[in-house]
Amino acid sequence: MTSELVSIVFVGEDIVISQSAMSVASANVFHFSDNTRGKDPLDDLTEESNSDTAIIIDNGSYECRAGYRTSKEPDLIFRNLALRQKGRNGEGDSCSVGHDIENFEAVRLQLRSPFDRNVVTQFDAQEMVFDYIFSKLSVSSEEKVSSPVVISEPVVNPNHCRKYMSELLFECYNVPTVTYYTDSMASWHTHTMRTDLPSDYGIVVSIGYGATHVIPIVNGKMDANKIRRISVGGYHLDYFMQRLLQLKYPIHSTSITLTRAEELSRNHTHLRLDYGEGCNDWLDIPYYEKMVRIGN
């Protein structure tokens, strides 16, 4: 990952991004959103879609997307995090998921993810996520989810993880059927159907939030014995961005939160498709002097 940003200045709750020839007054000023999100992109759900229409859940370790099969876009897109807080004065515990959590940084140490790296292991947090999804999708019955469920799972998901996930859906929600799919293979088949590329052989590089998988495709199917996992994902890039900024601007170390580092890495950086070309650009002295400003 490389960036065209050359100067970053923190001013209160804002960030000033400028190039070497620009002054702070003429630089672009970006406001941190600090996880301020709008409402869930829910459409008006019909009675028909609430009954037997399949619910598709892309259960990602960073974001979860869910919706009815008839929807062109996901009805729900939210951070796959859950928060359980103890009640006061005899009140019961309160549970919050996704958009219901107002400020991630204020409760960062209490947030729980269903995932350990890229595998679901915290099924109590996963249950809170399912409760959130089914309630937002206006599933009417509290005792049974009448819609079939199609849910993603990690590459070469361990059998006991799939077993516990199936038990949760069948015994807790009484879903009629559960179908599992791998998002990387779904992306592969969708891409090959939309293009003229052959679908029998290829390599899929699946970059997730907690890990990266390299998946060989042989005869149109993934070769599970040849899959390789790299324990580097989007989280590590966000954390690396946070540490770089904290080391460069120690006076603002408390203001450079992981949430803001995520926002910077996603909105103000880009990927170089040609790594060698990017390295050669930075070895060029005029390019370096143009893009880097030394000093305060």
What topology emerges from the helices and strands here?
Layout: E1 7-11, E2 14-18, E3 28-31, E4 55-59, E5 63-68, E6 76-79, E7 82-85, E8 94-97, E9 115-116, E10 119-120, H1 123-136, E11 149-152, H2 159-173, E12 178-181, H3 183-194, E13 202-207, E14 212-218, E15 221-222, E16 228-230, H4 234-248, H5 258-267, H6 275-283, H7 285-291
Parallel strand pairs: 4-11, 11-12
Antiparallel strand pairs: 1-2, 2-3, 4-5, 5-6, 7-8, 9-10, 13-14, 14-15, 14-16
Helix pairs in contact: 4-5
The third-level CATH topology of the largest domain is Nucleotidyltransferase, domain 5
Strand count: 16
- CATH homologous superfamily designation of the largest domain: ATPase, nucleotide binding domain
> Can you tell me the overall shape?
globular
Tell me about the biggest sheet?
Answer: 5 strands, mixed
CATH architectural name of the largest domain: 2-Layer Sandwich
In the sheet with the most strands, the strands line up as: 6-5-4-11-12
What is the CATH class designation of the largest domain?
Alpha Beta
Quaternary assembly: single chain
Counting DSSP H or I runs of 4 or more residues, the number of helices is 7
How many domains? The number is: 3
C-alpha end-to-end distance:
24 Å
Strand content: 15-25%
**Content-based structural category:** alpha+beta
Mean pLDDT: 80
Poorly predicted runs of 5 or more residues: 1-6, 18-26, 43-49
- Rg, Å, rounded: 22 Å
| Helix residue percentage | 25-40%
User: What is the ordering of alpha helices and beta strands?
Assistant: EEEEEEEEEEHEHEHEEEEHHHH
